[in-house]
Design brief:
Helix content is about 35%, strand content about 20%. With about 350 residues, it is of the alpha/beta class. The protein folds into 2 domains: about 60 residues, DNA polymerase, domain 1; about 280 residues, Alpha-Beta Barrel (TIM Barrel). Strand 10, helix 6 and strand 11 form a beta-alpha-beta unit. The protein is globular and about 70 Å long. Bound molecules: S-adenosyl-L-homocysteine.
């Protein structure tokens, strides 16, 4: 069975033509599933009974099941979703004043093994299929609809568990499905993909012709420190990463966001700030500071509020645009780096 939610418009058109249909059939199907929110082929009244039978035989409209749902005091919702094979992934809904953002997972587990992150402890179990990422958005949309406040998902960040560029093609199909006008119609500028720095992925992404955003998890301003925190830096050291970022900026004509975790006494002193300023000066990006969320899996600590603000000031005085990441749902372990479904399950 082919899951209809996993098909990007061009692929669906091609399949429809192979079925002896007009390409327009694909548009009609998108309208049914994304606009009219049909959950079965029987509802698709303007498609012939005969072809509906064909669709039922070959295609499914399966969505992940909600395994657990946690609601934070700030309204953040964390879902643990169960996939067809029983594997579980998390996604998080964050409510900003400008809209509803979902933090989407791209893999079950993660192979990047960053020393500070809970998602990578057990390695990667498997990639998520496009429909399993679309399913995260549709499930949250359904919850929003049930709330009855007329809200829906308006922003997507691929910043949950997994490394999106280690699952490149599926993530791109996902982006195209949610961005498509006949799909979920989420504006490209409201979609952000975050990478730990897989250089081939960055170069490819630059050439996709999308107006979506790119975030880079930088976390350290020199190779020595970055090697300690992120294994990926040994494969793609900072000079290689920065070249790729410059190439991205030139080709896509977009600026990147640098994510910089602040960990007490590890990467949060003035010298680190100065090095960071130097490192990114030749690029157009701005810095999003993420105060470290402590976990019981390592000894890293969050710096004091004073230190976090001092670091911000150092950057701003050095001519770098920077902000402190707003935090959601830390009381339900839904904040950055706290997603660890697979770990909880097996420990
Ligand atoms: N693999 C991608 C997508 C994951 S995004 C990437 O690395 O960008 C998740 C973000 O949360 C990354 O910037 C990651 O470095 C950060 N993060 C991981 N553990 C964290 C923690 N304990 N506290 C705060 N942020 C954390």
């Amino acid at each position: 069975m082919i899951n209809l939610y996993g098909l990007e418009m061009e692929k669906l058109k091609k399949l429809m033509v192979e079925e002896g249909q007009k390409p327009f059939r694909a548009v009609q199907l998108y309208t049914w599933i994304y606009e009219k929110k049909a959950t079965s082929f029987d509802e698709m009244s303007d498609i012939s009974l005969k072809f509906r039978e064909v669709l039922k035989e070959k295609y499914s409209l399966d969505l992940p099941k909600i395994f657990t749902k946690q609601v934070s005091s700030d309204g953040t919702i964390k879902l643990l979703l169960e996939l067809n094979d029983g594997k579980k992934v998390e996604c998080v809904l964050m409510r900003y004043n400008y809209g509803c953002a979902v933090c989407v997972s791209s893999q079950v587990g993660c192979n990047m093994a960053c020393s500070f992150c809970s998602s990578g402890i057990l390695g990667k179990q498997r990639n998520l299929a496009p429909e399993e990422m679309v399913g995260q958005i549709l499930t949250i949309n359904k919850l929003l609809e049930e709330e009855g406040k007329g809200q829906r998902v308006t922003h997507i960040v691929v910043m949950g568990t997994g490394e999106p560029f280690d699952n490149y093609d599926n993530v791109m199909d996902f982006v195209r499905i949610v961005n498509n006008q006949k799909g979920l119609a989420i504006g490209a500028r409201h979609i952000t993909v975050s990478t730990c720095g897989l250089v081939e992925g960055i170069k490819k992404y630059a050439r996709e012709g999308l107006q979506t955003n790119l975030a880079i998890s930088l976390h350290a301003p020199n190779n020595e420190l970055r090697n300690q925190l992120m294994k990926v830096n040994k494969a793609y050291p900072l000079e290689v990463l920065m070249e790729a970022i410059k190439e991205y900026e030139a080709i896509a004509n977009r600026r990147v966001t640098y994510e910089y975790l602040l960990i007490q006494d590890v990467n949060d002193n003035k010298e680190n700030a100065e090095e960071l300023i130097k490192l990114i000066k030749g690029t157009m990006g701005y810095v999003n500071l993420i105060p470290y969320n402590e976990t019981n899996k390592n000894d890293y600590k969050r710096p004091s509020g004073n230190r976090i603000h001092a670091f911000l000031d150092w950057l701003i005085k050095g001519g770098v645009n920077a902000t402190i990441r707003k935090e959601f749902g830390s009381d339900i372990d839904a904040a950055c780096g706290q997603l660890k479904a697979k770990v909880e399950e097996s420990l």
